[in-house]
Amino acid sequence: MPIIDLSENGLRHLNETLQSQAQGTNQQDWEIINPRGSHAIAVGLDAPIQVTVSGSTGYYCGGMNKQASITVKGSVGPGVAENMMSGMVVVEGDASQYAGATGRGGMLVVRGNAASRCGISMKGIDIVVEGNIGHMSAFMAQRGNLVVLGDAGEALGDSLYEARLYVRGSVKSLGADCIEKEMRPEHLAQLAELLERAGTDADPAMFRRYGSARQLYHFNVDNASAY
Amino acid sequence: MCGIVGLFLKNDTMKPQLGELLSAMLITMTDRGPDSAGIAIYGDETADTIKLTVQSASPDTDFPALEKSLDSLKGNAPTLIIRDTHAVIHANANQGDAIREVLNTAHPNIRLMSYGQSIEIYKEVGLPKKVVERFNLTKASGSHGIGHTRMATESAVTTLGAHPFSTGSDQCLVHNGSLSNHNSLRRQLNREGITTQTENDSEVAAAYLTARMNEGASLGEALTAGIADLDGFFTFVVGTRDGFGVLRDPIACKPAVMAENDDYVAFGSEYRALVGLPGIEQARVWEPEPSQVYFWSH
After folding, report:
1. Which end of chain B is more exposed for a tag (fewer CB within 10 A), N or C?
2. Residue B202's closest CA among B233, B242, B243?
3. Which residues of A are less than 8 Å from B286 in CB distance?
4. Which domain range does residue B228 map to?
């Protein structure tokens, strides 16, 4: 397996090498060592390769990912897997703010905690956080699923569209237009599938589901005086 | 942006390394703010002695003149240790007011950066690497220190606009963010007798904490009060003679990472700033929570 030492070869070399991997490449496994909190590690990948980052990273690790499977053996800075299109990003430690922001597809798994604004404006990505998430998570989330095994911070799902939020622990407060919804069999089945795909052991029956009350979709004339 | 670093040593044997470790942390944060940089060092104390750090744009003429003025003070003549544009006056504890009077009346071009038993502040316009070299900060020894590299938003890029800000004895503050109620708060503090030297928002935060501590609050209590009274975005790292505190505003969009082990507590705007610390791989690393006061003391 090729090992790229970021302290020797630099970020541009790393990303150019990984981004130039073709669809059917035989070189499927890569390891990145000495990340030392660097920004923009393994961004813009577009091939079905497996990348292991041995250490903690800074901003935007795995951003815009397509197809690739990226595992970080450490913690990540702000904006991990931002705008991910497909593939998988797994963080074995914690994630800083706005993890998985605006993601359109694929799956982000955080084995530790995620900070504020996790899944902000998510548009189809699936996010599984095994620990807690911070305030304003799933703000304006449009599509996809956010699964949290721990607790959620203040204003969960504020101004939510059609994303589904599953939380096993406590929710400090719900944001505007976010409400608890019934867990029906199709939700339990979906949650079981998400947990399995994430490699996370948890009982779907222990979760509660939250979603949009859909009261903010259209202008309500009774609120005219508020503007 | 702006980059902040802080290091609070629990292990006394590491004191000689403080300047070297803190300087390296600060230089790593250079691309978060290239305008100006500064470091506060809480160094060795001598009984009954105070230190006043002063700065001049014309050190070649101002400092010899200052030395002359200080010679005429009553009691033992204070000593002046000059480092580039800064000088540290070591004096008897009871000479503090007299020296400040001399500075105010006879040396209007010399600015007081800090005073206290332990603190020394060095700050200038320029990149962190340059500032560290000018003041030979890698050789500095001490129990804790705070550094800042600035991307200016609220006031001009000048030496006095650089962080850390010190508004009270052995106190200092660095700030990443911007405050929106600093003008009204500055007026209010001035009425309470707390003076500021600049138009800078961060200096007002420092002055606010000084005012609360003058009223008897601990640093932790002063920071807690700040959550209600300071409006805007902030990550603060604050130093006192024996303490080190961290506070983020409730929105917490300004980044912060902390690490702690048996030897130290460390703060960085990013994890990058911490990777050179000894034993960081085994240290507990976490992101400080919004609106939560973190405080350590010796």
Report:
1. C
2. B233
3. 94
4. 3-43+126-297
